[in-house]
Backbone:
């Protein structure tokens, strides 16, 4: 039976040891010190892309150099959410018409975005050579950024799993819906068994209040602790807020449009916690990104 702190967070002993070693993240200049964080979900419709966009905006506002990679290769919609109309996207890179650096667009607050394409099925089934070429180009860009966020598709497709396994840190987004919790467990299970991933962070979205968010995280953590050899850290929540819906309809980021709202404050809290937290892997393991197919 796992131990819980007062707010319901699972006590991660490994994480606490790392936090004792340092309370801040040192800024490094070597090529592979960039934090590459995959934000993912088992179920679609949990608000994952909105969370990525707002975290990216807040991280940039806090002084970090941020790149968001829309990793839903065939159905990317980050550009739509932000009201952008990029001329080029990942399809042009795969076709050899553009370099990855040439398709980057600026979003709100000067966050930088690698836009995916929408409705191009070929991008959902890239060859191993194409995948490796994509990551080789991405590695060339890492030194330009402090944090790279992968906004993955939902589910357990090979692309979703490989993006998660290739990142340095994995953040799973869930909502209070039972299907969201079940699908998140399935995602974590596959990543644990097939890719040997052991460390995950959890964000609860659209909870009515903090108590519900704590209960939802506890449900998933209890089941995972019983049946899987993983460590899940409850990282925080974004409570249900009508201002988020309004911002989406206006193709704006809620943290830009209404930063003092409930959701705006939640995103600010998550951002500061992420900045203060230690990376989930040691710097010695933080190597060049590689596309990881099933081991």
Residues:
């Amino acid at each position: 039976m796992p131990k819980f702190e007062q707010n319901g967070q699972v006590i991660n002993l490994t994480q606490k040891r790392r936090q004792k070693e340092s309370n801040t993240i040192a800024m490094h200049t070597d090529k592979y010190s960039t934090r590459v964080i995959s934000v993912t979900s088992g179920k679609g419709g949990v608000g994952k892309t909105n969370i990525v966009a707002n975290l990216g905006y807040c991280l940039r506002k806090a002084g970090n150099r941020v790149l968001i990679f829309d990793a839903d290769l065939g159905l990317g919609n980050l550009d739509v959410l932000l009201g952008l109309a990029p001329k080029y996207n990942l399809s042009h890179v795969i076709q050899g018409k553009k370099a990855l650096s040439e398709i980057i667009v600026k979003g709100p607050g000067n966050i930088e975005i690698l836009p995916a394409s929408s409705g191009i099925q070929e991008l959902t089934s890239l060859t191993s050579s194409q995948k490796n070429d994509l990551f080789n180009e991405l590695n060339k860009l890492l030194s330009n950024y402090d944090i790279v966020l992968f906004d993955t598709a939902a589910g357990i497709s090979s692309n979703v799993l490989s993006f998660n396994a290739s990142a340095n840190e994995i953040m799973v987004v869930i909502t209070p819906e039972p299907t969201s919790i079940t699908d998140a467990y399935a995602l974590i299970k596959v990543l644990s068994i097939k890719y040997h991933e052991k460390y995950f962070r959890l964000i609860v979205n659209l909870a009515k209040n903090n108590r519900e968010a704590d209960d939802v995280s506890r449900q998933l953590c209890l089941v995972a602790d019983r049946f899987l050899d993983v460590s899940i850290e409850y990282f925080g929540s974004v409570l249900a807020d009508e201002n988020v819906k309004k911002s989406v309809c206006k193709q704006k980021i809620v943290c830009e449009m209404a930063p003092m709202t409930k959701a705006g404050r939640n995103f600010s809290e998550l951002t500061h916690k992420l900045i203060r937290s230690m990376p989930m892997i040691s710097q010695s393991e933080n190597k060049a990104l590689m596309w990881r197919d099933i081991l």
Summary: The beta strands are 35-41, 66-71, 105-106, 112-114, 147-154, 169-174, 199-207, 231-239. The mean pLDDT is 87.
